[in-house]
Design goal:
With 493 residues, the protein is of the alpha/beta class. The protein contains 17 helices and 12 strands.
Length: 493
């Protein structure tokens, strides 16, 4: 079920403290090296606290107006309806979504409309409650809605003020990427406006843009121009960078490699007001006067829960059913090939994270260098008949079910590749790095279309990105069924 037939064992690189081969733009998980765990968790924890504070403020703003009624206890039964209405409607309106710089006044129309809708729904559904309260007159509903809106605006204003004050005390380190002259201009403007809450720590540009950066007109910016992947790697780790601001118009190779910055958000920022700023739910976002928007590079929404549930259920069941087959294959390999029936190899997973892929060992490489850098095909002359049988039936892939159960991979997704080839293919094919927006898989859309072994990388890349862009739960089930058909026909997947 593999896209490529690697016959190498582990490359010998330690996962702790060992970098990927030179030239690769893949960054290891932050839990392995870099900033301390306390610093790594600080920003996600702050964001969760901010969302929790907004939910608490909205809930209080919805319930406190009940105290204006003559007998509030008679209307206590409305509490669940009000809480459900305010949270669901505000979440649907993305009032809990992250924004670069929160502005309370921008939220007033959405809050007012949802407060009116929430009280209207409550008044309509209240008679269906087990002990319905007295009906509310229209003027009373308008008063309650207005009180909720005022309380919500005031509470959210305090939350946003606290967040902006924190951003001013501890600005978020960012990298600015794109055409060198535009990127330096954006970085200079951000440095002149510390109240925007971000602090540029470097300008990312290709090596041939550094001369342009040094000669670019405008205010001088004492920031390093990062022209190589290694320099970007060091800047991200040393400064605990979690956000990259992308100025449109940069080199395609650079733009294609940015999504592999594991854990970094990618925002597009307009250096020149050539077109209207992109809107998000009617609210335009600006940072230091630049229009910006988040780029959704993490794959389609709703994939995580559904895919993970399918992976755990199917992989767990297959491991139980296939346990006798796994044991038999391991015993035969032990007798015919000697010790070490499982080989482990570093592969690149979602967001550029390295993980150890497991397979039955069907061939022993000449040395670790061959394991890490040799592009091998299924027709390997040095394999014995049983190993060829494992390859032709894809039984050598069965140990990867453990990778799926651990969460390293998914059942369906782009096939993972070695860091050496990820670096090469990312430079040659601009869209190759975008394959890492979703967890890698045992099988995928490219594999059921025959793109495995020594086939076109460009075609695989196109099929993989098409799968991610059009993902659905049903598509995963169809790919699994078609993979089963490939296995029955002994064509692989």
């Amino acid at each position: 079920m593999s896209a490529e037939r690697t016959v190498a064992s582990s490359s010998g690189q330690s996962r702790q403290g060992t970098a990927a081969p030179p030239g690769t733009f893949v960054i290891a998980p932050r839990g392995e090296h870099g900033a301390p765990a306390r610093d790594r968790a600080r920003r996600p924890a702050r964001r969760r606290r901010s969302v929790a504070a907004l939910v608490a403020v909205d809930a209080a703003a919805a319930l406190l107006p009940l105290l204006l009624l003559d007998d509030p206890r008679r209307y206590a039964v409305l509490t669940p309806l009000l809480l459900a209405a305010v949270v669901v409607l505000n979440a649907q309106g993305r009032l809990y979504a992250y924004t670069a710089l929160p502005a309370t006044l921008d939220e007033v129309p959405a809050l007012a409309g949802r407060a009116a809708l929430g009280w209207s729904l409550t008044a309509v559904l209240a008679p269906a409650l087990p002990a319905p309260p007295p009906p509310l007159a229209l003027p009373t509903l308008l008063t309650l809605g207005a009180a909720q809106c005022l309380l919500g605006v005031g509470g959210r204003g305090l939350v946003h003020w606290h967040r902006r004050a924190g951003a001013l005390r501890r600005p978020r380190p960012v990298l600015v990427a794109g055409p060198a002259s535009d990127a330096r201009s954006v970085a200079a403007a951000l440095l002149r406006r510390p109240r925007c809450g971000v602090r540029p720590v470097g300008v990312v540009g290709d090596t041939d843009q550094q001369g342009e950066a040094e000669a670019a007109p405008g205010p001088a910016v004492e920031l390093p121009v990062l022209g190589t992947e290694d320099e970007v790697h060091r800047a991200v780790i040393q400064n605990d960078v979690r956000t990259v601001l992308l100025v449109p118009g940069g080199a395609p190779g650079l733009t294609g490699r940015l999504p592999t910055l594991g854990g970094c958000e990618l925002w597009e920022i307009e250096a020149r007001p050539a077109e209207p700023a992109p809107a998000r739910d009617g609210v335009r976002q600006y940072v230091a006067g630049f229009a910006c928007r988040p780029l959704a590079l993490a794959g389609p929404r709703g994939t995580s829960v559904g895919k993970r549930a399918l992976d755990v259920a199917v992989a767990g069941a297959l491991l139980l059913v296939a346990a006798p087959v796994l044991l038999a294959c391991a015993l035969v390999l032990r007798v015919t090939e000697g010790p070490g029936v499982i080989f482990r190899q570093e592969r690149v997973g979602k967001d550029g994270r390295l993980f150890t892929l497991l397979k039955f060992r069907t061939h022993r490489p000449a040395d670790p260098q061959e394991a890490a850098t040799r592009w091998s095909v299924a027709d390997e002359h040095r394999m014995n008949p049983f190993c060829r049988f494992l390859r032709s039936t894809s039984l050598d892939e069965l140990p990867q079910l453990w990778n799926v159960l651990r969460g390293d991979m998914s059942l369906v997704g782009p096939r993972p590749e070695r860091p050496f080839f990820v670096a090469q293919f990312s430079q040659t094919y601009p869209d190759y790095a975008r394959r890492h927006r979703m967890p890698t898989g045992i099988t995928g859309l490219a594999q059921i279309h025959g793109l495995r072994g020594d086939t076109s990388i460009e075609d695989r890349c196109r099929f993989d990105n098409a799968y991610i862009d059009s993902w659905s739960f049903w598509q995963d089930l169809c790919i699994l069924l078609r993979t089963l058909g490939c296995l029955v026909r002994r064509t692989g997947s």
